[in-house]
Amino acid sequence: MEHAEDHGGAAADGPMEQFDITPLIPIHVGGVDLSYSNSALFMTFAVIASFLLFWGAMRQRTIVPGRLQAATEILYEFIADMVKSNAGKEGMPFFPFVFTLFLFILFGNVFGLFPYSFTFTSHIVVTGAMAVFVFIAVTLLGFFKHGFHFFSLFVPPGAPLPVAIGLFPLEMFSYIIRPFSLSLRLFANMLAGHVLLKVLAGFIISLGLLFGWLPFAAVVAVTLLEILVALIQAYVFTLLSCLYLNDALNLN
Amino acid sequence: METEAAKMIGAGLAAIGVIGGGVGVGIVFGQYMQAAARNPSMSDQLRAFAFLGFALSEATALFALVIALIILFT
Asked: Which residues of chain B does A4 touch, with a Cβ-Cβ cutoff of 8 Å?
């Protein structure tokens, strides 16, 4: 989406403008552009916010938790239950990673909903990097744990030999496509939601005072839907990571 | 100029795929409500599955939308 500005003046104020990456602190190391961009700024915000939430909530620990402590404990137990029920007891060593992933995506999605902010999860580079990392980590884990027995993941249990031979490439393909579907889902949801919000907001201006309230009501409703989508997509990304982890650990 | 027009038509055609996502999301929530009406005690447990199904089926519609956007903006 970085090419949106190539289309001249009309596209510059278009719904794609919000996804432009602008370098805030230019850093160039040996011809490589390592500038601190607005995307990196909001990633820093996400990390700081999740740190502050848990540091602030757990600073004064009490047996009977206060409001903030109870909220963070619910968040923690929600993900812990998800890992335990989907990947089993063996999955729990990976709980810190899954929880970090969840918080990072969650805060990225939620911060992106503030006006004039930037949604780093609406860039496929970011979601793709996370999805490919999960995919490679899970595949290596499967090979370390099971050796070449890991390939039995691609053979459905109880299938007769001719069917299994036919299904093997299909299952393998659906395994290899996983990082694409995982990253595209989060990226496309965030992109589509923010484009929709901007397009509807443009209708408010063009329809004026007389009919402008109609798209305004739609913007309010879509904003509520987007808050829901932001939470669901963070949940779905981590849930699918858990399911992939379960595949690698337990093989079918 | 003709490629521009073809791009617009292509993007419109690619967006047809969103129909499937709409049908899918409708089926997910319709079936969830049917299940909750038949067995109200299970509705809390089923809600998580309903939202998972919503997210998974909505994603297929968004894949079509992404293709449309790629056609428009590249």
From this structure: 73
Q: Chain A partners of B63 at a C-beta cutoff of 8 Å?
A: 184, 188
Query: Is the minimum CB–CB distance between B55 and chain A shorter than 8 Å?
Result: yes
- A7 at B interface, C-beta within 8 A: yes
When CB atoms are compared, the residue of B55, B69, B73 closest to A233 is B55
Write down the pLDDT at residue A2.
Answer: 43
Residue A212 φ then ψ, to 5°: -65, -25
> β-pairing, A32-33 with A28-29?
antiparallel
Average pLDDT of the residues of chain A: 86
Q: What H or E segment, with its residue span, contains residue A28? A: strand A28-29
User: At A159, phi and psi to the nearest 5?
Assistant: -80, 140
Using a cut of 0.95, tell me whether the model's pTM lies above it. Answer: no
pLDDT tens string B18-74 = 999 999 999 999 999 999 999 999 888 888 788 888 888 888 888 888 888 888 877
Residue that is written with structure tokens 């299904």 in the block: A167
Q: Does B29 touch chain A (CB under 8 A)?
A: no
Contacts of B54 in chain A (CB under 8 A): 232
C-alpha span between A212 and A205 (Å, rounded): 7
Report the residue of chain B nearest A192, measured CA to CA.
Answer: B62
Give per-residue pLDDT as tens, A108-157: 999 999 988 899 999 989 999 999 999 999 999 999 988 888 888 888 88
Q: Pick the closest to residue B50 from A185, A139, A28, A232 (CA basis).
A: A232
